[in-house]
Known about the structure:
The protein is an all-alpha fold. The chain has helices at 4-33, 37-65, 69-97.
Amino acid sequence: xxxxxxxxxxxxxxIDEWRRxxxxxxxxxEDVGWKDPDRQMHYYQVIEKLSxxxxxxxxxxxxxxxxxxHDWQVNKDEIDLLRKEVTEAISEARSRVT
Length: 98
């Protein structure tokens, strides 16, 4: 079983990576705006959904930090599902936006 502190550090690192990726997507989206405003709006909607998912993981992580042994495993499982969703969504967004 993975150590709780190690897991928290791993997720925090991934959240930082996602935030950098979302920032990069915003920069690319800004550039698209003058060429295709409709496409830019669509990209912004995708980015906002990504940001919401990333925030959800961060919120769950905050709960996990204060959880007991049983709750920590439940929260970890929820975070793992969300991490997979966010990672897949960022990959998909990268392929669409860039």
